Amino acid sequence: MRTFTNDTARKILANEISVETLLHQYPEYQQEVLQELSVLKNTRNANLIHAIIDKYSASAKMANHKISRSGFNEKTVNAFLPNVIKARFALHLLEQLNISASSKTSAGNVKFNLWDGMILQKLLFKKGLERKPVSLGLFRLCWRILLNRKILMPLVNKKGIYCFYSKPLINELSSLIGDKKCLEIAAGDGTLTKFLNAKNISCTATDDYSWKHYIDYPAFVEQADAKTALHKYSPEVVLCSWPVPKNPYEKHVFKTNSVDLYIVLGTKDPAVTGDFDSYYSADHFTMEFSERLSSLLLPPSSENAVYLFRRKPVSS
N or C terminus: which one in the chain shows less Cβ crowding within 10 Å? Predict the structure, then answer.
């Protein structure tokens, strides 16, 4: 059984500790709550959802009352505080139901059940379809219990979303880039650049806006084709996530003298991503498939690939 200090108990009861922090500190409650919520896997019954919300709310209220009445007695705190923590996690997840239940394909005939939608909305998105860096541990826990995970990518592809970025992947890319000037080409909605900027990486997102009928381009994504952007910024590092197969723009990366490192996030299949003809003919660069970085792209797939192209040293 977990033991809690009075100071910790007071902060939890006063909601002074975030749900994310609680889950990091007490990960054993994640599995318990997900198992308790598994009744929602095959239902769209709003009354059942409200009943579960009421159950968790009542449990937390009773626990709060008993702990306060006991004067924060050690045995009472240890017995009832877990109910408060689990209730906060469960209610936080259940709040996402109204958004997640409306996820549909363009054909309108496939959508997530409430269970899958709730978990994926919380796991992958900040709000709506705005992606967030994904906790790898939480992803691995949740991914295996989803019922219809195969429909995730078809649902989001039409919005220009082809992968999700784990927190460890963002950290490793940040270490690779360091203090070098970085440019993202064909950036789409600029998600990758935004995550790197949050890590104090100097990266500029650019795109030619050719997918404006699918993607809502934010203001920070500069409208420029790859050749123009490379000439304008003379970057040392270039990024491209899910480049179009046989595209006409990646070849310009290898022709830009300032570029020392080119990082491609995509797949091993030339029919799905990337200009492999340019990859194989880039005589001034080495080409490395990074198994480690590829494993940090989500959802997991044996086809995921992160390639690192490093400029060869000039022979003396």
Answer: C
The answer to whether the Cα torsion of 98, 104, 109, 115 is positive or negative is negative
Pull the structure tokens for residue 280: 């194989």
**Same domain, yes or no: 176 and 268:** yes
Q: 220 and 288 in one domain?
A: yes
Using DSSP bridges, classify how beta strands 203-207 and 304-311 pair: parallel, antiparallel or unpaired. unpaired
Q: What is the dihedral of CA 127, 129, 131, 132, to 10 degrees?
A: 20
Question: What's residue 169's pLDDT?
Answer: 98
By CB neighbour count within 10 A (0-12 exposed, 13-18 middle, 19+ buried), where does 132 fall?
middle
pLDDT value of position 50? 65
Pairing of strands 203-207, 182-184: parallel
Structure tokens at 163: 């992968």
Residue 12: inside a domain: yes
**Together in a domain, 172 and 299:** yes
Measure the CA dihedral 184/186/192/196, to 10°. 10
The tally of domains found in the chain comes to 3
Picking from 68, 49, 55, 189, the residue whose alpha carbon sits closest to that of residue 132 is 189
* Same domain (yes/no): 76, 135: no
The confidence score (pLDDT) of residue 295 equals 97
* Neighbouring-strand partners of residue 298: 164
pTM of the model: 0.66
Residue identified by tokens 């796991």 is 123
Q: How far is CA 76 from CA 57, 65, 66, 67, 79, in A?
A: 19, 11, 7, 6, 5
Q: Which letter does DSSP use for residue 237 in this model? A: E
Any domain includes 316 = no
Show the low-confidence residues of the chain (pLDDT under 50).
Answer: 96-110
Q: What is the rounded distance in angstroms from the CA atom of residue 120 to the CA atom of residue 99?
A: 11
Structural domain boundaries enclosing 119: 99-157
Give pLDDT, residue 212. 78
